[in-house]
Each structure stands twice: as C-alpha cells, then as structure tokens.
Write a structure and sequence with these properties.
The chain is built from two helices and no strands. With 124 residues, the chain is mainly α. The N and C termini lie far apart (129 Å). The relative contact order is 0.03.
Length: 124
C-alpha cells in the first residue's frame, strides 16, 4: 500500500518566507487524490434570501454615514484649495504679463518719442 506523502507533512516547520512557489511542479499532481472539506451546504441549493445581512455582516449605518460625509467634506475642501491655487497662479501670470506689456509699451513710447525728437531736430 502506498501512503499519501501529503498526509505526512508537518506544516508547523514550514518557513513560508523561504517558500518559492515558482519551482513547484504541478504537472505530476493527481487531482483525483486531492480531497477538499465537505461544505455544510450544497452550492446549487444555497438560498441567500434566508440570510439576514445584519447577522452575517453587522453594519454601523451611522458610522458609515459619518465616514461618507467626512470624505465628501475632504473632497470639497481639496477642490476649494485647488481652485484657490489656480486663481492665485492666474493672477500672478496676469500681473506678470501686464507688467511686461506696460514695460514694453513704455520702452516703445520712449523710443518713438526719441525718434520723433530726432526727426524734428533734423528738420529745424
């Protein structure tokens, strides 16, 4: 009689950190020898409608509502901060462009005035 080597394994001495599953050769595994625990119900006959969700997964509706409200406040706050930063950057760019245009206009006006003065000085 051949004994099943899987039943003789002592898994308490198994170091999972050193386990390399890439080297497992599953091609020699005989699926017929595998046994799985029997479920206390038959899957096709499993009726979910008989389960009471409150007993299976107790939910604290008030806590969930508070958490959702907090998340919404954080999201709105983040949007407000982003909008304020975008507005500050827009104002900074507008001021920089306005200053540059004013400076260019002043330089152009000064050059034009100097050119007109030279022209008028040459005419006299």
């Amino acid at each position: 009689m051949i004994t099943n080597p899987i039943k003789q394994l002592d898994l308490t001495k198994l170091d999972v950190a050193k386990l390399d599953i890439t080297k497992l050769d599953l091609s020699k595994l005989d699926r017929k020898q595998l046994t799985f625990p029997k479920l206390p119900f038959d899957m096709p006959d499993f009726d979910v409608s008989r389960l009471d969700a409150r007993t299976v997964l107790p939910l604290d509706v008030e806590r969930i509502t508070d958490t959702a409200r907090d998340a919404a406040y954080v999201g709105v706050g983040a949007i407000v901060v982003i909008a304020q930063q975008a507005d500050e950057r827009r104002r900074a760019v507008t001021n920089a462009v306005t200053d540059a245009v004013s400076a260019a206009t002043a330089i152009t006006a000064a050059a034009a005035t100097a050119g007109v003065r030279r022209t008028l000085g040459a005419v006299r």
